[in-house]
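Lab notebook: predicted structure, single chain.

Context: the supervisor wants predicted structures on file for every construct in the current expression panel, including those that have not yet been purified. This is the next one on the list. No modifications to the sequence; it matches the entry in the shared construct table.
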Amino acid sequence: MNKCLERLYNGIIKENPTFVLILGMCPTLAVTTSLVNGAGMGLTTTVVLALSNTIIALLRKVIPDGVRMPAFIVIVASLVTLVQFMLQAYLPSLNDALGIYIPLIVVNCIILGRAESYASKNPVLPSLFDGIGMGLGFTLGLSFLGAFREILGAGSIAGHQFIPDDFCIRIFGLAPGAFFVLAALIAVQNKIRLNHGKKVKEISSCTGKCGECSEACNDRKEEA
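Prediction complete. Output recorded below exactly as produced.
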């Protein structure tokens, strides 16, 4: 179970596909005009990631190395088709909003990357949690990006208007705005990680001999 939790943490925080690995930029920049669109795209990808990782882990000893990538694509394409049918049946508005980017999940580098680097080499349960973790990390990234773009560009959140149109910055609803917001969020995330790394380094450098430490050192440990 510890390994499963580690896979969740890895996908959501340590190797977040959007803010750390910078993967899947095509849907990230294209569909995140609103919170609903971003969350919908992220959750759709999460379902495909979790199921594809599970199936590939189950078949990892059966699939020949020579046809590994074609087999992965067939599995992912089948799952994407099923998910798209479900969206068309139960969430047609979301299906229309995401449009062509649902079929393009088949060639999403996050899904094929996790299939090749992890699911094809590890047991079923860790692979399932790896897919869920990466998917949730992708969902959080798209949701944050969509929420900020919707607030700044349309003055609303989840379709609820709370800022007058005159105060909206329309460029954030367009393609260039996606780059601006993504760059700002990555900068904030990098700053947080840098500060956290400094605190961890200060604590790890402690000798453990508290009687020999200065008051400043003790203060730093307490703050950390």
